[in-house]
Amino acid sequence: MASVCxxxxxxxxxxxxVWGEGFLGGKRAGHHSISIEARSRAxxxxxxxxxxxxxxxxxxxxxxxxKTLAPMWSAVPKNQNGRVEWRLVRYxxxxxxxxxxxxxxxxxxxxxxxxxxxxxxADILGVHTPELADAxxxxxxxxHGYSLQDTAALVSAIQHLIFDSESSLLExxxxxxxxxxxxxxxxxxxxxxxxxxxLHWMIGDDQESIDMLKESQALIEETIPHWQSITxxxxxxxxxxxxxxxxxxxxxxxxxTVEGRYSFDVAHQAAGNIARNFASFWxxxxxxxxxxLVSMDPSGTGRVRLSDFYGSNMDGEWHFAExxxxxxxxxxxxxxxxxxxxxxxxxxxxxxxxxxxxSTSHYLVxxxxxxxxxxxxxxxxxxxxxxxxxDVLSVIRNMSSFDNMPPKxxxxxxxxxxxxAENYDGRVPLHGRLFAQWLHYVFPRECPFPHKAGxxxxxxxxxxxxxxxxxxxxxxxxxxxxxxNSTTAMHGEELHWMSxxxxxxxxxxxxxxxxxxxxxxxxxxxQAFVFLSIIGLISGGVLHCSSRVPGKMSYSxxxxxxxxx
Length: 565
What we know:
mainly alpha; 5% strand; disordered C terminus; 8 strands; 565 residues; globular; 3-stranded antiparallel β-sheet
């Protein structure tokens, strides 16, 4: 019923827009052009309809989303209307969900290469509201850009669609346990049902494996790390909801939970709370993984030799067993060092899909992206799409890594940042590949190395296939190969630890309005001198076209039009 209601609501909300100049059609004969603001209102109304029949966007929720997005919004490039293109909308939505819940929304993965035929939208929109997804991508609003309010409306709609989709899994769990969603359960029954829900949520659609696990508590604890803590999370979530119910009763609002009766709606709310907060709960496990990797990185390069990586797995640990080919696919393998050979990049490995503890059809629950807070601080301090190198350095100097260590800011890195700025009128684009690459080398254990578009993926182990795990023979071969030269030329490696650096830029969006030509902003006398010099060169016949220097970036018009989100 809910999904039918949503589709009908979305279709109804779009009709008035489509019959005007709206998302999909051109201007009707005899009709004036609809303003950008009117299109925005229709856009937001359409997403409001996603909340269900008669639903509306909660203003307090939208205000909170906009507040969270504000630092990003202030620092991304805008068009002449003060709006952003679709690529930036999906970029901000991706970062919002990563910051709030460490959810990687399917369809918004940064590894996806975008082009005119594939602009990338959340898979859940295409499944539940294809009309709306089509309107978002192909409508006239996309030609004029999206506002902060539009972006917040999209985020809100996705949140609600995911919450609604969780009810389907919950209904399945009720059915498997011989319960009707219409019946109320006591507290023990609700806790047992939610623990069963966690099994389905974490294991997926493999009902045979789930049934096998339910027959043996020991097998569950062996298969799912920290299962006892997970059941404690369920119990804690229920206690929190019970406490809120008591407070509501004190305000005169009656709740059956206070009387020990738990409805399907209570179970649904509990499941949603667990999903939103699970990454924070699981972060202890993520940090344990990172600590193990850091212990194998004494030089602080954010890299671990592949032989050491596999060596730590020889005792049967379920971590550090990904095959070389799968690590390469995930973008977690650095193969550029002639001194240390193949290395696992710590932050790329931590953010890889293989470390996402939950994988649903709509999102993955991953480890916290520690670089988000770093970039967020830079955006907040700068407040614009471009920043002078000295301003960036000033912000970075006041930061510390998650290991409470000062950031790497040696002369080489300072020069690299200034070199990036030279290509953009003395300023650094905050949302380009080169700045992300620079951040990686400043915070090598927190910020992932940004590969060029399409060079890595977010495939889960099951999506990648049977070859995702390394065989014992493969691990042993790497260990034996590197055992004789593990300490060779360490000093040389320190001098060449940035071997993966590349000069290829990929801007997240069009920076054209924010960049000036080399002659803009100069005094009129300088402009006149440049003009007369050009005239002289032309009259002398010595003005020649020069080819682009390999490995160097040119002014914005000549920068490759590529995107990495």
